[in-house]
Amino acid sequence: MKTRAAVLREVPGNWEVCTADLDAPREHEVLVRMVAAGLCHSDQHYATGDNPPEHLPFCGGHEGAGIVEEVGPGVTSLKAGDHVVTSFIPSCGRCRWCLSGDAALCDNGAGISIGKQLDGTFRMHLDGEPVGQSALVSTFSEYSVMPEVSAIRIADDIPLAIAALVSCGVPTGWGSAVNVAKVGPGDVVIVIGVGGIGINAVQGARHAGASRVIAVDPVQLKRDFALQLGATDAFAGHEEATDLARSLTNGQGADAAIVCVGVTHGEHVAAAFSAIRKAGTVVLTGVAPGAEIGIPVGLAEMVYYKKRIQGTLYGSVAPASGIPQLLRFWQDGALRLDELVTRTYSLDDINIGYEDLLAGRNMRGVIKFD
Ligand SMILES: NC(=O)c1ccc[n+]([C@@H]2O[C@H](COP(=O)([O-])OP(=O)(O)OC[C@H]3O[C@@H](n4cnc5c(N)ncnc54)[C@H](O)[C@@H]3O)[C@@H](O)[C@H]2O)c1
Ligand SMILES: [Zn+2]
Ligand SMILES: [Zn+2]
């Protein structure tokens, strides 16, 4: 079948909307009609070449929601008509990582920036050339074929534009606070960078009982949103956040600092490191350019103060259970999602959507398919 899809043909490059060929789903795969796709900064890292895709052309998009159109042989957990959210890690449920409760680290995740399906072949083609599918789900396409395990079934009554957010940005941010920083009652937490991911770290930290959530972002709109969605304080620079955290803790520092800057650098992690207390935690969620090495922190400080810097993928959420759970939190009023969709776009306007992301105009831009 044919599908209109936004692809990168070169890197650095812009998204080009083309008509691609899509094969039928094979064993343990499903065909999904996409309804909404979120514009996450991680796809921007592909386009700029900070972290280039490992195969070109490459159809982007890993955050999305849609409706199953057709299932391939052997699919038992889904049927046509089911509403699904895409998982950017196709967790198998059987590898060492899945079995030890770290499904976001599933060995199946190794190929997400190449974009072959799990049997090692491509499902999308452009003028006869194979096209990589971002995270194997390529949500920047009207239709997409993906592994059964990448399509997480959700209730039919949840609006799919809302559900799309719970595909990447919400679990990643929420889990960074709840699962990784392990925020507890009374904690003082700093979130550096409150865009699509960081705003949900703010929500997670408040949910977990933090007494103060201090948001840092140079963009006023982000700070205003953070204050509406649970931050108690907001600053343009990390120095003021650090000063406040120390003044609240008898000079000790924040219990945790979560770094969610769009293009993260070592200096952002170092700022978080200096803001935390003894035995505090820096959570590194934002992605740095792949070639960048090094975090300028005092090694002795790390030892004597027993400080911890912890990276995380997907906020260490297990997608198959965590995604439906977060939607239940939304239904119960414990998680706010509607406000996060600040603008919607047609697929053809995807580059405008990314310009708006870079200009700081959106919490989350979302592509809506007709
Ligand atoms: N670890 C994961 O599993 C995972 C998953 C998804 C996204 N990410 C990464 O998380 C990062 C954030 O993604 P996003 O979609 O929220 O991006 P975004 O562009 O929506 O948000 C980034 C925010 O950082 C702010 N910012 C820029 N410079 C800053 C600074 N010096 N101090 C404080 N804030 C600053 C921006 O104003 C913006 O609000 C990206 O690097 C993305 O690739 C990681
Ligand atoms: Zn993402
Ligand atoms: Zn696995």
Task: Describe the protein in words.
The protein has 2 domains: 2-167 and 337-368, Quinone Oxidoreductase, Chain A, domain 1 (Alpha-Beta Complex); 170-313, Rossmann fold, CATH 3.40.50. Helices cover 26% and strands 26% of the residues. It has helices at 41-48, 96-99, 160-163, 169-180, 198-207, 220-228, 238-248, 266-275, 299-304, 319-331, 350-358; strands at 2-8, 16-22, 29-38, 58-59, 64-71, 83-86, 124-126, 129-133, 143-147, 151-154, 188-192, 212-216, 233-235, 254-259, 276-284, 308-311, 341-345, 364-368. The strands form 3 sheets. Strands 3, 5, 6, 9, 10, 17 and 18 form a 7-stranded mixed beta sheet that branches. Strands 13-12-11-14-15-16 form a 6-stranded parallel beta sheet, with helices on both faces. Helix 4 crosses helix 5 (198-207) and helix 7 (238-248) packs parallel to helix 8. It is globular. The model has no long low-confidence stretch (mean pLDDT 98). The structure holds nicotinamide-adenine-dinucleotide and zinc ion (ZN) (2 copies). Nicotinamide-adenine-dinucleotide is lined by residues 40-42, 45, 168-169, 172, 192-198, 216-219, 222, 260-262, 264, 268, 285-287, 312-314, 357, 360.
